[in-house]
Amino acid sequence: MNVKKLAGEKAVEYVRDGMTIGLGTGSTVYWTIRKLGELVKQKELQIRAIPTSQQTSDLANELGIPLETFAQSTEVDLTIDGADEFNSSLDLIKGGGGALVREKLVAAASNRLIIVANESKSVEKIGKFPLPIEVVPFAWEVTAKRIEGLNCVPTLRRVNGCPYVSDNGNYILDCSFGYIENPAKLDRTIKLLPGVVDTGLFISMADTVIIGTTNGLKVLS
Ligand code: 5RP
């Protein structure tokens, strides 16, 4: 059973005609976007969408989903996105796909955030997944040292030996903190460091998590 497809497609049931939808990034929300594309093509649904990455923008364009930017609308009715970890308070770690800054901006502009995931992302305490932190390339080594001082091991994300560059032209440090006792406090502390653009901690942002399991769907709200 494809549990990502199960969760991804379920989220489409929350989408209504006329909505502006934030489209997340990743292999689970891929199934949401594909399903939305089908409905738009069959003229069963009329939506506009704001993508959280170039990758999602390309997919939505390919599927014929009309896109808009914040120049047209600063309010998003509903965002559907994936996550790398979630706990029972619906706090998240995101950014495994490198889109955390736009994902957070779109989520923050949304009236509702639905996360689609599989059971392997469910944790008691977040932090086992290395926390992605987007940093300005200039002096990234200094920023990494400051982050290291918060008791973690930061690793510069690389692709084929070169630094990974986000859609915003920045680098990403994957930071192994181990279990994070107070995610909200850590998020605030990291964001005060010069050079940090944002963190993959999404605290009190998600309203619902749709979880695909081999026994069917679970929904947390
Ligand atoms: C991208 C993300 C993704 O939503 C997250 O990595 C989950 O992706 P997937 O559904 O492929 O496991 O945060 O920046």
TrEMBL record:
Species this chain originates from: Brevibacillus choshinensis
Residues annotated as catalytic: 103
Job description of the protein: Catalyzes the reversible conversion of ribose-5-phosphate to ribulose 5-phosphate.
EC number(s) from the headed UniProt entry: 5.3.1.6
Pathways involved: Carbohydrate degradation; pentose phosphate pathway; D-ribose 5-phosphate from D-ribulose 5-phosphate (non-oxidative stage): step 1/1
The protein's name: Ribose-5-phosphate isomerase A
Subunit structure, interactors included: Homodimer.
Assigned protein family: Belongs to the ribose 5-phosphate isomerase family.
Signal sequence interval, chain numbering: none
Transmembrane segments: none
Keywords: Isomerase
